[in-house]
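Worked example

This section walks through a single chain of length 188. The input is the sequence exactly as stored; nothing has been trimmed or padded.
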Amino acid sequence: MGYTIFDTALGRCGIAWSDAGITGVQLPEVREIETRRRLYRQFPEAREQRPCSNTELAIEGITAMLRGQDVDFSDVVLDLGGVPPFNQRLYDCVRAIPRGETRSADDIADELHVPKALNSIAQALTRNALVLIVPCHRVRDIGNGLDKPSPNSGIISKRRLLSLEGARPHAGLTLFDAFLAVDRPRAS
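Given that input, the structure is written out below as tokens.
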């Protein structure tokens, strides 16, 4: 496994990969060392390397997306080997949500034909290591205190990502979404 740290308009991000594809994306933390630590905790076997072509494609997409550009990640190969089948189905569904749009957790549950699986959906989205490529920020209304940011979202809020995509605020956003609207301060 490999990883690299790269510059974006919002700070230094990290990405990890295997021979099979991208395994994780880490958005910027306040300091680069924190971004590296998070990657290391998730992927302790990964070593810093020069990115392969698939990883370069993902990096180009991430940097463009964080500049507010429209990006299609469909050609980026993901390594979902350690991801449970339900999560894989959910991630495919979330990847199909168009840029600048959101879906409620209930909408996703209905689309997956699992109307009572809101807890499972919330847990799978919280464990999403492929932020931006699997745009979990486009899913709203996960209640019962389960709507937590992915550990990989760094200092960038869900609301900020949606604003970069040109999404309009939605009346159904939860209180947690309102809390996320304020990005955590960056250290200088």
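What to look for: Residues 2-65 form a domain with the Double Stranded RNA Binding Domain fold (CATH 3.30.160).
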